[in-house]
Write a structure and sequence with these properties.
Elements: H1 4-21, E1 23-29, H2 33-46, E2 50-56, H3 62-68, E3 74-79, H4 80-90, E4 94-102, E5 106-108, E6 123-127, H5 130-142, E7 147-148, E8 161-163, E9 169-173, H6 178-181, E10 187-190, H7 192-197, E11 208-209, E12 217-223, H8 230-239, H9 242-252, E13 257-258
Parallel strand pairs: 1-2, 1-3, 6-9, 6-10
Antiparallel strand pairs: 3-12, 4-12, 4-13, 5-10, 5-11, 7-8
Length: about 260
């Protein structure tokens, strides 16, 4: 016993020291896949001494404001065009540090089995933020539904529509409210995280779906002042593991796609 006791005490002290040295960070996410994926990242990061706490936000605006204000240390919910737009509009000092997953946006309908079935003058709801609203208009352009002005890049608006043969009426709604609009419109463009929350299947249910390849890959963002801190590398490396990739592929069955 006299030999074993120092060994036991040493092991206990080592475990206590590791726990005491663990760094805790708060990460802002939207409910659904982003939160679920980071729950899978947590135990991997914990082995590297990083304790992750998740805070869920119900919209796309607050997570960047909270990050810029230092209320959280990172967020995972947005793509690069959206982040660029927020930085330009609000002056946030925030940077992307790693890619995560892609959520091809879909157009859904309770009234029509195909987009071609939407009648002339039909109502189509799109997200009211420039990035997600713009990506829907680009999707409709690519499918031959409308034509847009040249040079609109990733942020066209309804004012940039030059041809609309079916005279569709575009109704802009908050992205989080898009599933509720389904009963009132002919079709609604809904982001994958909000679609899954509403019980929709983002692979089988859309009557139009975005090409998964493109600029809308999601990312992990941190404050510019933090981007070189050791915990950032641990977070990104923990996310970019085979275990997390397998979780995404198994859990979401093509609705969410790994981008690393």
């Amino acid at each position: 016993m006299s030999f074993r006791l120092p060994l036991i005490l040493s092991a206990v002290l080592a475990a206590w020291s590791a726990a005491a040295a663990a760094e805790t960070i708060k990460i802002g996410v939207t409910p659904g896949p982003h939160a679920q994926i980071l729950e899978a990242v947590k135990p991997i990061a914990a082995k590297q001494g990083l304790d992750i706490q998740l805070l869920e936000f119900s919209d796309y605006v607050v997570p960047n404001a909270a990050l810029d204000a230092g209320e959280i240390q990172a967020n995972s919910f947005q793509n690069q065009p959206y982040l660029d737009n927020q930085k330009a509009d609000r002056g946030y000092k925030i940077e992307a540090v790693g890619l995560t997953v892609n959520f091809p946006i879909g157009v859904y309908s309770k009234k029509h089995k195909a987009f071609a079935d939407i009648p002339e003058g039909g109502k189509v709801s799109i997200p009211n933020d420039p990035t997600n609203g713009g990506r829907v208009l680009l999707l409709l352009r690519d499918k031959g539904v409308i034509k847009l002005k040249d040079g609109t890049a990733f942020k066209p608006t309804v004012l940039d529509i030059t041809e609309n043969p079916k005279k569709l009426k575009f109704i802009e709604v908050d992205a989080a409210q898009a599933p509720r609009a389904l009963d009132d419109v002919d079709a609604a463009a809904i982001n994958t995280n909000y679609a899954t929350q509403a019980g929709l299947d983002p692979v089988k249910d859309p009557i139009l779906r975005e090409d998964p390849k493109g600029p809308y890959v999601n990312l992990i963002a941190v404050r510019t002042a933090d981007k070189d801190k050791p915990w950032v590398k641990i977070l990104v490396d923990s996310y970019h593991t085979p275990e997390v990739k397998e979780f995404v592929l198994t859990k979401f069955k093509g609705a969410v796609l790994p981008s690393w």
